Amino acid sequence: MNVVSLIVSDYKKYKKYGGHFLSIVFFTQGFWAIFQYRIAHRCYLIKLPLLRPLLLGLCLIWQKSIEILTGISIPYTASIGQSFYIGHFGGIIINAKAVIGDNCNISQGVTIGVSGRGEKRGVPIIGNSVYIGANAVIIGLITIGDHCVIAANSLVTKTIDNHKTVIGVPAQVINNNSSKGYI
Question: Coil, helix or strand for 93?
Fold first, then answer.
């Protein structure tokens, strides 16, 4: 997908949750952060050797401004699918190597980061249509399957299969319900 299509898909997701154009564009910090990420990620993918460093430098300044204003850190090197939704602003940290699928929702205070040692060191891969609750932490070289729910305040350090709901520290599977109704 091109950058305009991705931004439109993100906007439609925000609109689905009841926002209107002015409130989404001017007052929704999560949309600001994902909009900035989409532009910066596109600049990151540009193959022009002279233009790319200049654009990335400007994007880093823009990213830091958004991060200070919103408390949301999304590096341009992360990989995020279409229709991404940040429910509330503040305290969201996404690792630069994180991979997040299509149609995912995350809440405030979420960390998607690096953990582990040696061969087990790495960053999570999040599947499609995953709901991540407030203050959840997902770390390490793990995979979160499609249509999962990560409950609030959970610490996920192990791979989760598709259509599972997890809760706790460390996170444990509590049922086979999917994210339908959360997304």
Answer: strand
Residue 38, phi then psi, degrees to nearest 5: -60, -45
Instruction: Please say whether the beta carbons of 120 and 141 come within 8 A.
Output: yes
Give me the helices (H) in 28-180, please. Answer: 29-45, 51-70
C-alpha pair distances (Å), 73 with each of 65, 120, 161, 177: 10, 24, 27, 30
Do 112 and 94 contact (CB within 8 A), yes or no? yes
Residue 16 Cα to chain centre, angstroms: 18
How do the pLDDT tens digits run along the chain, 183 residues long? 899 999 999 999 999 998 889 999 999 999 999 999 999 999 999 988 889 999 999 999 999 999 999 999 999 999 999 999 998 888 999 999 999 999 999 999 999 999 988 888 999 999 999 999 999 999 999 999 999 999 999 999 999 999 999 999 999 999 998 888 888
Q: How many alpha carbons lie under 13 Å from residue 17 in its C-beta half-sphere?
A: 20
100, 81 in Cβ contact below 8 A?
yes
Which residue from 57, 82, 83, 86 is spatially nearest to 73, judged by alpha carbons?
A: 86
